[in-house]
Design brief:
about 375 residues, alpha+beta, FAD/NAD(P)-binding domain, D-Amino Acid Oxidase, Chain A, domain 2, eight-stranded mixed sheet, four-stranded antiparallel sheet, 11 helices, 17 strands
């Protein structure tokens, strides 16, 4: 075996989470090597819905609501920076987003959840409830079966594939070293770690960040992490390009900047099976047509399934190893929404200074995986 490189940080995982963290570390002038096994990986970053979404996140953990809002508020600056780096428009829009309901009980339940969360946040949580007539004014193509919606003013969406490409290019421009091999072993070594890959090469690093989603478990357990994560399948449909018919995105339907209507997303517990199914495709399409009847005329051009990374309570995990200090574990199922926080706030914690997070009133220790011990 030979030593191939040395760095201050090794980031394991080349998806949105890993690249966002690497981008932030590079912006702090850190020497970073990113390890990515390539297209053999379970590419959650290529299957997501493209939402920057605040609404409802944090019910059961107000700290997560604060973290999500902190990220959403930083998305405009992240998008500008990436566009300046690459010349590409991420098509980011943050003009609010809907949760749309076809029955009163579901709407009332959602409103009760958000009202309680707003109370827990001291009243600072901007949403409003729209009846059928009110949402019809906002969305003329809405269906007669829609009883109402919740409009949250901090929600938005973007082109996630352009975002991923932008992260790749921007990190390369900043000198990111990329090793396109699967990591097989990470061991403490001197004042840092030795990262070994499938080609038997060894790479030295002072700190290591595990951000490889569902691929994290085996590596994480050897470094003292519990890694309590599981896959959850989501299926997504997209139609042919259409004239503008939807003004704002919802958590189930959005019109992408290129014109297609994206429809999703299911939540299925089926292990590592990421295949789409006819049954779920039909259910998603039927629900979409009830919300927007004009979609009955649209041609479906593509569908896919992808695996979310879920913790037991659905909230992110950020943890430094207690047995291997300098080893970190970061995971979430909202890599797009939290990308700005991962790029602009999380690197400070990784560098040993979490003051910027604490100053926001965010008790970051709430995200430790130790919360599952009780």
């Amino acid at each position: 075996m030979t030593i191939r490189s040395e760095s201050e940080f090794a980031v394991v995982g080349g998806g949105v989470v890993g690249l966002s963290i690497a981008y932030g570390l590079l912006n702090k002038n850190k020497n970073v090597t990113l390890f990515d096994e390539g297209d053999l990986a379970l590419r959650a970053s290529r299957g997501n819905f493209g939402l920057v979404w605040v609404q409802g996140k944090g019910a059961g953990m107000p700290t997560y609501a604060k973290w999500t809002r902190a990220s959403a508020s930083r998305w405009q600056s992240l998008a500008r920076q990436l566009s300046n780096d690459t010349g590409w428009d991420l098509a980011l829009q943050q003009r609010g987003g809907y949760s749309i309901y076809l029955d009163e009980k579901s709407l009332e339940k959602k409103v009760a959840t958000l009202t309680e969360l707003k109370k827990q946040l001291g009243g600072d949580y901007p949403f409003e409830v729209l009846g059928h007539n009110a949402i019809k004014k906002e969305e003329p193509h809405i269906g007669k079966d829609v009883v109402g919606a919740v409009l949250h003013h901090e929600d938005g969406h973007l082109n996630p594939l352009v975002f991923l490409r932008s992260l790749v290019k921007a990190t390369q421009l900043r000198g990111l070293k990329v090793v396109q091999k699967k990591v097989t072993l990470i061991t403490p070594s001197g004042n840092g770690f030795t990262v070994q890959t499938t080609d038997q090469q060894q790479h030295l690093t002072e700190k290591v960040v595990l951000a490889s989603g569902l691929g994290t478990k085996a590596l994480g357990e050897t470094l003292g992490f519990k890694v309590p994560i599981r896959p959850q399948r989501g299926q997504v449909l997209i139609t042919e390009k259409m004239p503008p018919v939807i003004n704002r995105p919802s958590d189930e339907i959005r019109q992408v900047n290129e014109g297609g209507i994206q429809i999703g997303a299911s939540a299925e517990e089926c292990g590592f099976d990421d295949k789409e199914t006819i049954k779920t495709t039909a259910e998603l399409a039927s629900n979409a047509i009830k919300q927007y009847p004009i979609l009955a005329k649209a041609q479906l051009v593509r569908s896919w399934g992808a695996l979310r990374i879920m913790s037991p309570d659905g909230f992110p995990i950020y943890q430094q190893s207690t047995t291997c200090p300098g080893a970190y574990f970061a995971t979430c199922h909202s890599g797009i929404t939290l990308a700005a926080a991962h790029a602009q706030l999380l690197p400070q914690w990784l560098c040993g200074d979490g003051a910027a997070i604490t100053d926001l009133g965010i008790p970051f220790h709430d995200f430790s995986e130790n919360r599952f011990d009780v």
